[in-house]
Each structure stands twice: as C-alpha cells, then as structure tokens.
Amino acid sequence: MKKIVVVGSINMDLIMETPRLPALGETLLGGPFSTAPGGKGANQSAACARLGAEAVHIGRLGDDLFGRQLLEVLKDEGIDTSGIAVTPDRSSGVAQICVAGGDNSIIVAPGANALLSARDVRDHRDLFREARAALFQLEVPLEAVTEGLRLARSEGALTILNPAPWRPLPDETLALVDVFVPNAIELSQCAMTANREKAFEKLLETGVGAVVMTAGSDGAYFASSHRSGHVPAPSVNVVDSTGAGDTFTGALAVSLAEGHQLQEAVRFGVHAGALACTRLGALPAIPRRDEVEALLARS
Q1: Cα–Cα distance between 112 and 140 in angstroms, integer?
Q2: Whole-angstrom Cα distance, residue 60 to residue 139?
C-alpha cells in the first residue's frame, strides 16, 4: 500500500432530508434526520483507506462526545490517527447538511478545526516520511495547509490541493501544488474567469503542475503542460451528492500514488465519486475498491 498523508478537517455531519431546500425565512417540515462522520479531510482520509492506501491524518478534534466518536470512526477505518490532537474547551467541527433530491446545502461550524496551526503540522513532520502523496483542503487554516505543502514537497510527496471552501490563495501556496482539484465555481474564483480553458492556462502559469476540475454528472476535466482532456461520469442513481468530491479527490490521490497517469487517475476518481452519490451521507457513502473496479469494468 502507498502512504498518503491528509492534512484537514474532521466534522460530525448533521443530516436532514427534505423535499426541497427552504427559502430565506421559511420553515419546512423535513424528513429523516441522521448523524454521520464527515469533514473534507476525514472524508478524503477514509477514501484513501477504503481504496487501498495507507492513510495518515493530521488534524484537530474537540474534547467532546462528537470528537471521541469521530476518532474511533477514523481508527476503525484503518487510518493512522497519531497526528490528530484533542483540543480542550473547544467543540469538534460540525456540518449542518440539508439534502433535497440528491442536491444539498451545507453550513460548517469549524470548531477545533480552526485551531490547526503550522506548528501542529511541523510537530508531525515525521508522518510525511515515505509518503507518496499528501492531500489538503481549506476547512483548516491556510497557514497549516501551506506548511503541510512545504513539508510534503521536502519529503518528495506529490501535493494535491482541493480548494474548498474557497478562499484567496497566495502565489507561494499555489506554487507548492502539484495537482489542483477545484469544482467549476472554485476554478472561476481562483482564476477570475468562467472560461475553463483560460482558467486552466492561468493556473498552470502560477506553477501548479496539473488542474483537475470536477463537474458533477459531467465527470471531470483535466489539464497539464503535456495534455488536457475530459472524463465523463457513468450513469448512476443519485441519492445524495454530499462527499462525492472528497471521494473523487481521495481516489485520484490513490491512483496517482500508485503511479498511474493523470487521465487514468481521473477516470478512477470519477467512478469512485459517482458511486458515492448512490448512498446517503459523506464518509459512510465512500465505496470500497472492488466496487469502483467493478463499475470501471462495466463502463
């Protein structure tokens, strides 16, 4: 198994199913309510573990019931949790998710995630040794992300950044990214243009090695200095798209860490992300490797 380090958030998802999303000021009677482990970082760690990598997580939890539950979930997934700190007097991260017709709206209260520091990451520098790839998102402070990118690069790991939720990124951070994985909105926010080809070109000029744009039911588009292309998504019965992007990113990282070319890795990611849409929740919906390989064989 190839080692992948994930620096990122860990949340408890509070999920409410509803016929439609409410308008501003409106109260709706919803359907079933459930809780599930989530957070972009935890989802991506779980995706890496379920799809065949040795996953290592660096992050923060609160000293509360959700924190204890989430830590046990990550351990049960086979994830190395030695880089996770428990933060006194701070709640764990929580995401409020409304699911309607396969779509969703999400509000995140970061809790302990907001306290992850560059020093926290430096203190776990040893975890980056022998890693083939390192994954980052933006649900934790940018200083922790940038420090992690530096450490991963210094250890020879492939660096992958999923810029969600979006925030402005300095050139020094972008220059440390080997694979940049936004959705269409994040791509346009970063490049300040809605034209995909121009956005790809602009990002590659900053020093990013490759750009992979997720496009939901349309699959994913990719570009590097060598080639560009599109990988369509397979047709699936969509139940809940929450976490599909995280599943895609984790799957992409696993495939790249195993030495596959970018287009092949994007195809693996697209099929893994599609399967994640067929179940409710984020982390619980992440497929196993044999499921993804079976779908690939049918496509």
Answers
A1: 9
A2: 11
Three-state secondary structure call for residue 238: coil
Q: Are 204 and 242 in contact, with CB atoms under 8 Å apart?
A: no
Indicate whether this model's pTM tops 0.70.
Answer: yes
Q: How many CA atoms lie within 13 A of 196 on its CB side?
A: 16
The pair of three-digit structure tokens given for residue 179, joined into one six-digit string: 């694979």
Catalytic residue ranges: 246
What phi and psi values does residue 31 have, to the nearest 5 degrees?
A: -100, -140
Number of residues that this document lists for the chain: 299
User: pLDDT tens-digit profile of 202-216?
Assistant: 999 999 999 999 999
The neighbour count for residue 143, using CB atoms within 10 Å, is: 15
**Domain map (residue ranges) of the chain:** 3-10+39-92+111-298
- In what helix (H) or strand (E) does residue 47 lie, and over which residues does it extend? helix 40-50
pLDDT reading at 42 higher than 90: yes
pLDDT tens digit sequence for 248-276: 999 999 999 999 999 999 999 999 999 99
Q: Comparing 282 with 54, which gets the higher pLDDT?
A: 54
Specify the CATH class of 3-10+39-92+111-298 in words.
Answer: alpha beta
Task: Provide the token pair at 291.
Answer: 């499921």
Q: What tokens does 199 get?
A: 């956005």
Rounded to whole angstroms, how far apart are CA atoms 156 and 162? 19
Q: 22 to each of 86, 97, 104, 238, 242, how far by Cα in Å? A: 35, 12, 11, 21, 18
Residue with tokens 């880089």: 83
At residue 9 the predicted structure's pLDDT band, cuts being 50, 70 and 90, is: very high
Taking the C-alpha atoms of residue 120 and residue 159, their distance in angstroms, rounded to an integer, is 18
**pLDDT bucket at 86, cuts 50 / 70 / 90:** very high
Reported as type and span, the H/E element at residue 275 is helix 262-276
Host H or E run for residue 76: helix 65-76
